[in-house]
Amino acid sequence: MTRVLFVCTGNICRSPLAEVLLQREAAARGVDDWIVSSAGTGAWDGAPASEGAYLVALEHELDLSAHRARLLTRDLVKRSDLILTMSRHHRARVQELEAEARVHLLGEYAGRDGPEAEVSDPFGGDLEVYRGTYVELDELVRVAAGRLTREFGAPRTGD
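The structure corresponding to this sequence follows.
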């Protein structure tokens, strides 16, 4: 099993979208041994996905209705094989929790560098802003899934 954790600020927009996108990508690739989750550096435990994230996910036949935010903890970091963050300040917070070798910016993990490696926060934006974030995350997650497959072994499927 490979445990992947996505991290953003509130765990109500970017990281939940990335989580369901990677779950969908795993299913499309026939991978059944990725355990994908998300957390936020400043999350309010139990908060639902933001309305914008929820609606954009629905537009793409993804369901965030059961998502509940959770705060990033040292235990979550310890249990994760790979931690992908949305911005540099999220990465710094994860590094404080002793995960330096296992944490990357999602954008850098997917081959971007500089300012383009960060995924901007759509919170407070209109639906078009969320749609833009979705498109960006979809692209990054697809590339990251390919790298994840190469780095953590070929997909294994259940019998």
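The chain has six helices and four strands.
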